[in-house]
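Following up on my earlier thread - several people asked me to post the actual chain instead of describing it. Fair enough. Here it is, all 154 residues.
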Amino acid sequence: MTSPSPTSPSPVPLSADGVARLSTALDLEHQAVYAYGVLGPYLSGSLRTSARTAEATHRTRRDKVEALLGDAAPTAAAGYALPQPVKDKASALALAVLVEDGVTTAYRAALAVTSGGNRKIVLDAMIDAANRAAAWRRAAGTTPGTVSFPGRPT
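Reply from S.P.:
Thanks for posting it. Predicted structure:
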């Protein structure tokens, strides 16, 4: 018998609140995948590569959260209304920031109601999205490039 690896902790059962908050995070992961498909073509070079990497990361996280939720996982919509139109590089970068901030906020909310391996998954996702939001802010020339408390509702 093999013991769990310290880098991939074993998930623990989720509370009803944990299911609800991770369902919200899952929905935002679906939206992120959709948004990157829309904004990616407005970027070029290393920014387009970063967008592709971000989309792949959100697909992987989406699959991981779906597995955690099992039968309770909400399904993706056929499409999503974007919070703002994307018509050029600047609007694509602004959407990327909004997407990552939204994902960060959802995982921050889930952090309070998860434990064990689930909490580690949620924390890693929150940190990753917050770092990506900061990178998109820097790419857009936005100042400040970071926020004091990532994921904290304003």
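The chain has a mean pLDDT of 90. That should answer part of your original question.
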